[in-house]
Amino acid sequence: MGLDDFTPSDIPEGWPKSSEVSEKFKEAAKKAAAGIKRVQKDEKRAKKYDTILASFLVQIIKNPKYDFLLQELFKALDNGYSSNFLLWLLSLIYLPISDKIREISTKNIISFWYQKTPNTIEFDDEIHEEIKNRINLWIEDIIDIVSIEYSSLQIQHMLEIYGKKDEEYIQKFSCKVFVFFFAELNIHISEKKAMSYIEFILEQIFAKMKTISTEEI
Questions:
Q1: Coil, strand or helix: which one is 187?
Q2: At what angle do helices 83-91 and 18-62 cross, to 10 degrees?
Q3: 188 phi and psi, to 5 degrees?
Q4: Whole-angstrom distance between the N-terminal and C-terminal Cα of the chain?
Q5: pLDDT tens per residue across span 161-200
Q6: Exposed, middle or buried: residue 89 (CB in 10 Å: 0-12, 13-18, 19+)?
Q7: Has this prediction a pTM greater than 0.85?
Q8: Do 88 and 53 form a contact (C-beta atoms < 8 A)?
Q9: How far apart are CA 160 and CA 116, in angstroms?
C-alpha cells in the first residue's frame, strides 16, 4: 500500500477534503524522499574522500618528515574537519594529493619548476612567480574540492565548527603547513607572516563555503 491508495474516512466537519489531505501527504513524502536521497549522496561523497585521504595518509605516515603534522592532522579529524578539506590542506606539501584533486576536477596537474637555492633565504613579499602560481593553484584546488561533488552536510558542519570553536586551531595548523612548504624550498618565513597569508586564504575559502551553503542547503 502506498500514499496513492490512502483514502481517509470519517473526516470531521471543517477538516480539509480527502483529496487535499492526500496531496499534502504526497508533497510531504516527495520532499522527504528528496531529502533522504540528498543525505545518501552526501554520505557517498564523504566516504569517497575518506577513502582517498586514508590511502594518502598511509604514504604520509611512512615518511618521517611529515611526523610533525600527524598530531595536528589526527586532531583535525577528531574535531570533525572533512576529508576533502584536509586533503586540500596537505596537497600544498604532498603533490600526489593535488594531482588527485585536479583529476577529480578534470584540470591539468601542476607543474612546479621553482629551483630552490642551496642556502636558506628569507621570505620576501615579492614572491617568485612560480611559487605564487603554486599557491594560487592550491587555493583553486580547495575551491574546486568544496564545489565539485561536495557534501552539503559536511560544508554546513565545517562552517559550524570553524565559526564556533576551531578558527584559531585550524589557522595554526594551516600555518604549519604553509611554513613547511616554504622550508622545503629553503625559504624561511616567520609564523607571523605566514599567518597573515593563511588568515586571508581561509577567509576566502569559508566565504565560498557559505555561498554554497546558502544556495544548496
A1: strand
A2: 30
A3: -95, 125
A4: 32
A5: 766 666 778 888 889 999 999 999 999 999 999 999 998 8
A6: buried
A7: no
A8: no
A9: 40
